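General statements about sequence and structure are easier to judge against a single worked case. When preparing material for the folding task, we compiled for one chain both its residues and its backbone structure tokens. The amino acid sequence and the backbone structure tokens for this protein are reproduced below:
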Amino acid sequence: MRVKKGKGVLCAVVLIAVAYVASVAMPCVAAVRAAEGETTTVAVNAPPYVEGVFEVSIDITNVEDMNSAQLDISFDPNVLDVDDVSDGLIDGETIPIDRWEFIDRDTIRVLIDIEGIKGVSGSGYLAKISFVVVGEEGDASDIDIEGLLVNTEAEEIPAEWIDDRVAVGTGPTVSVDAPPYVEDEFTARININYVEDLNSAQFDISFNASVVNITAVSNGTLDGETIPVDRWEFIDENTVRVLVEISGIKGVKGSGHLAEVTFKVVGERGDVSDIDIEGLLVNTEAEEIPATWVSDEVRVGYAIDTGPGGYPSIAGTHKGTITPHYDITIDKIYTYACEGTGGHIEYVHIWGNGIDVEASWEGYTGDWRTVKFGETFTLEADKTYNYEIRTGSYPQIIHKSKLETEYAEITCTEFTDVNGRTYYDWIPAFKLF
């Protein structure tokens, strides 16, 4: 929740002028009310977790003699869209919506005009907004508001404007965020996408103790507030239990991570370990907060992984360079294929700085997207190697001349497709490991 005090967006120049004249001619009712400690607030009231179509009310408290209003409501258009705006209600009296419109892709403007000169006083809601979720589960969006309230004397009513936030899904998602390839020591975060009124948590982290082991667990943070780890302990050789307890009774709200977990690698190159998580979140009312718990996986040994690419795609011969940021030991290469196709690497040659290795595809048998070299070799950090990769069918393509990843820089110096056309920004999507 964010509170904004003071003046919002003015409806029209005429209102400003009228308000100025009126303020000279008569005492300000809003100032009297403020002196009495009755602050007018306008707040977005949204459910914390949303799916499909949902409704948000624009609540108002302690308003006096309101005659009209303008509200600007903003949101993330990649997560939410507005379907409709309906009338409000203050102390039993309908607050009619004069009109509403999009003033930008991420903002709607709502105009309220109350008939007659008596105005309305009290508390209730100015409008109800019907939103449609267009994002994915785990996405989140602020719903921000600013605006102007005007009384029957054409004076601005000072108000506090309070935003809200929603997350897509039925509850928070707690997920392990670990690097895909690890050596020596590494850190995994226990992320949480959005939670309200969190007071405490317990979660068990399980792993393959012959591959990795936990050596430390440290505090997390949610929207800038520290989440203290009360204690952690092994409950068996493959599982650690972590207890989080937030002091006080107010709880915390937001997104971030519940803890950082330090692991030590004890396995060999090529070993794999799941990092599983399950647990319990508790709110300030001592109630369970339903949550989705998402595990992760790590593989011992660094890899050169471009990540997925996409279309357009065609078979051909790729040439370029690879410059690792770490010493990376390799014995195979994997191809990202376009969905529904047989995209693959038919031939690969890597050479330079004392390395000269090649391998060929063995057809659509077994793990046909992976081509194995006849030997294991190491590409050394900060040395540049040349590659030639000949593809078949439709491999995924990264349409860049240079790709920077965590583990290496990959370039395209030339790509010639099967029709003889040449390009200089086609990097095949692959993984060397």
